[in-house]
Amino acid sequence: MINDERWISIRKTPTVVTQFPLRMIAKAxxxxxxxxxxxxxxxxxxxxxxxDFMSDQAFIKAYRAGLATGSxxxxxxxxxxxxxxxxxxxxxxxxxxxxxxxxxNRGGLAMSLIDFVKFEKSKKTFYLLDTFCxxxxxxxxxxxxxxxxxxxxxxxxxxxxxxxxxxFPNVVIIRGIVPxxxxxxxxERVAFLSIDMNCAAPEIATGEFFWDKLVPGAIIxxxxxxxxxxxxxxxxxxxxARTHDxxxxxxxxxxxxxxxx
Length: 261
What we know:
Layout: E1 7-11, E2 17-21, H1 22-28, E3 40-42, E4 45-47, H2 57-67, H3 79-92, E5 98-102, H4 108-117, E6 126-130, E7 134-135, H5 142-146, E8 152-153, H6 158-164, E9 171-175, E10 190-195, H7 200-211, E11 214-222, H8 231-243, E12 249-250, E13 256-259
Parallel strand pairs: 5-6, 5-10, 6-9, 10-11
Antiparallel strand pairs: 1-2, 3-4, 7-8, 11-13, 12-13
Helix pairs in contact: 2-4, 3-4, 7-8
């Protein structure tokens, strides 16, 4: 336990307030104390480290563009997770190859990165694949069902997504079940692959399908990798990585990163 001399006041009655050392309260509840002030405390990540991207005007604009799609609630803050995707997209813009996202929902992450890297000005194509209405029962394992993964679970949003991205001629929306729809992606080379399908089978099928199409240096962003509610996906991706003689970088945002060598 860190020796932190901060104190917390607890009101026992309307007139009686008692102070306790913060470290005592933390110990009683099995909590750890981050020394100093927090610079970020959202989405399961608390840190005192530098996060000056939060004040970067280009990122603020891109984040707001993603937020406007309604992909996540206005009371949910995913800035660091979105920044990881924007960073990965920026790196991939320097590579030969198209972009692919499997698991789109309303398109928040895709819209943020499009805005951040000015994707519409590029000669690349961005393929967005989803059922646009949630998970498919036949792809969910019994172990995942025990973790609360059930068919559907998302509001139908295909028409809204089409409207959201209609202004971008180099964005292709593909509706259907992954992996069945993967051959509809006509990209010969892929520089960026974002995967967020909430269950292991379609995710690994996507990784296998695109692996040989990924150019050297291409980045795979795994949205669910280190979230305990998606542990089956982590196990599956760790096996995938070993099979391909590589390793997933576990990020404190809950994401994972794979870089094609």
